[in-house]
Amino acid sequence: MNKRESKETEAALRDFSVLIQRRIKEDLNFWKHRNPAEAKGREMAYRSCLFELNEALSNHGLTMGDMGLGGYEVPDTDVLE
Q: For a tag site, which of 3, 10, 46, 49 has the least CB within 10 Å?
């Protein structure tokens, strides 16, 4: 991969990281107000997906930090505003 491709990949991963975090928060916030039980189920599903992503990345020698998601935790719907 040349420098240009590397920079484009890094930019795409940063954009993905911001987008996925925003979408998760918006989705959980929507469901928290509409149906708290559904919000809790979605929270658990997102946590599971991120766990699976972390496992897949580890198998390829990558980390969540490489994806721009280092230290990211799915918001707890009990404290989400």
A: 3
